[in-house]
Specification:
This protein folds into 2 domains: about 1-160 and about 315-340, Alpha-Beta Complex (Quinone Oxidoreductase, Chain A, domain 1), CATH 3.90.180.10; about 165-290, Rossmann fold, CATH 3.40.50.720. β14, α8 and β15 (about 260-265) form a beta-alpha-beta unit. It has helices at about 40-45, 70-75, 90-95, 155-160, 165-175, 190-200, 215-220, 250-255, 295-305, 325-330, and strands at about 1-5, 15, 25-35, 55, 60-65, 95-100, 105, 125, 140, 145-150, 180-185, 205-210, 225-230, 240-245, 260-265, 285-290, 315-320, 340. It contains 10 helices and 18 strands. The strands form 4 sheets. Strands 3, 5, 6, 9, 10, 17 and 18 form a 7-stranded mixed β-sheet that branches. α5 crosses α6 (about 190-200) and α5 (about 165-175) crosses α9 (about 295-305). The longest helix has 12 residues, at about 190-200. With about 350 residues, the chain is α/β, with parallel strands linked by helices. Bound molecules: zinc ion (ZN) (2 copies). The site of one zinc ion has 7 residues, from loops.
Length: about 350
């Protein structure tokens, strides 16, 4: 199969011809239909988030069709003991199209897993970092970490929901009932979360790179009350802010825009260093917190909400072989919304 492979930090992804992966028991064999590109992929390429065992197929926003294989003939739901021998369709057969997110496996027995915080499991394995991901024609994934894609969403439109959407959703939840919400960095995650926040009745203030008029007008089209550069101040005090851009300097910037009691939520897996700032910016019970990964509960909840909003994703589509170009365009901010690879 064709795949785009990470070999080492600083190198371009390599177009490779790999054997089709074999599903282990409990795994699905997936024919990849689309795979979203994420800023985390740039952090992996740059070594800011480490890949322990390269070579590795990147890609953790996979939309795929489930191929019927060994894994689901055995299916989790067998015949009822003592009852008539009825073949229950396995979960996979009921859901011919699935999404695979960043969270690929957790241990299920650690304190975090047992307290509803599997996103913090120290033994967790992540798709496209510890497990081969979706920048390929085929992939395998643990059935328990695959999710039904809402109907009515074409493959390409659904892909960004699986990380930009899910991490964005978890970040939004950390904002509590804040009505005036700032979104710092208006890319894939923010363009989804702005729609959800508006649907929830919040006001959205979009903060982009200075002078990025394309992102600012895109934010306004999606219902933002105001959009401007990070060198400007929002016209009102924010009750919460989510920072999706990887620039640590945005933390004091966002604190300056925040009302007393407000929260700054850092939605990214990596940020540049945070410059020092006066304690006064944090005073009055403002807080700063990060969001790490996602839980399966986040995924179920978010994918249920998506068609209710309904969220519309804005995507730029690249053929699989142009993964490097998609990543370069993401780095340079050359598209609005999200980039998606199609094999
Ligand atoms: Zn665990
Ligand atoms: Zn991601």
């Amino acid at each position: 199969m064709r795949a785009m492979v990470f070999d080492r930090v600083g190198a371009r992804l390599r177009a490779a011809d790999l054997p089709r992966p074999e599903p282990a028991p409990g795994q699905l064999l997936l024919k990849v239909r689309a795979c979203g590109v994420c800023r985390t992929d740039l952090h992996l390429l740059d070594g800011e988030v480490a890949i322990a065992n390269p070579p590795r197929v990147l890609g953790h926003q996979i939309v795929a069709s489930v191929e019927h294989g060994k894994a689901f003939d055995e299916g989790p739901a067998g015949p009822v003991p003592g009852g008539p021998r009825v073949e229950e369709p396995s979960r996979a057969e009921r859901q011919p199209r699935v999404g695979v997110p960043w969270l690929g496996w957790t241990c299920g027995i650690c304190g975090y897993c047992r307290s509803g915080r599997e996103n913090l499991c120290p033994n967790a394995k992540f798709t496209g970092r510890d497990i081969d991901g979706g920048m390929a024609e085929w992939a395998v994934a643990d059935e328990r970490y695959c999710f039904a894609i809402p109907e009515g969403y074409p493959d390409e439109q659904a892909a960004p929901l699986l990380c930009a959407g899910l991490i964005g959703w978890r970040s939004l939840r950390m904002c509590g009932d804040a009505k005036r919400l700032g979104l710092y960095g208006f890319g894939a995650a923010a363009h989804i979360i702005a729609q959800v926040a508006r649907w929830q009745g919040r006001e959205v203030y979009a903060i982009t790179r200075p002078g990025d008029e394309a992102a600012q007008s895109f934010a306004m089209e999606l219902g933002a009350s105001w959009a401007g550069g990070s060198d400007e101040s929002p016209p009102t005090e924010l009750e919460a802010a989510i920072i999706f851009a990887p620039d640590g300097a945005l933390i004091p910037t966002a604190l300056r825009a925040l009302a007393p009691g407000g929260t700054v939520v850092c939605g990214g897996i990596h940020m540049s260093d945070i410059p020092s700032f006066p304690y006064e910016l944090l005073w009055h019970e403002r807080s700063i917190r990060s969001v790490a990964n996602l839980t399966r509960a986040d995924a179920s909840e978010f994918l249920r909400i998506v068609p209710e909003v309904p969220v519309k994703t804005h995507v730029t589509i690249y053929p699989l072989e142009q993964a490097n170009e998609a990543l370069a365009d993401l780095r340079a901010g050359r598209f609005t919304g999200a980039a998606v690879l199609v094999p």
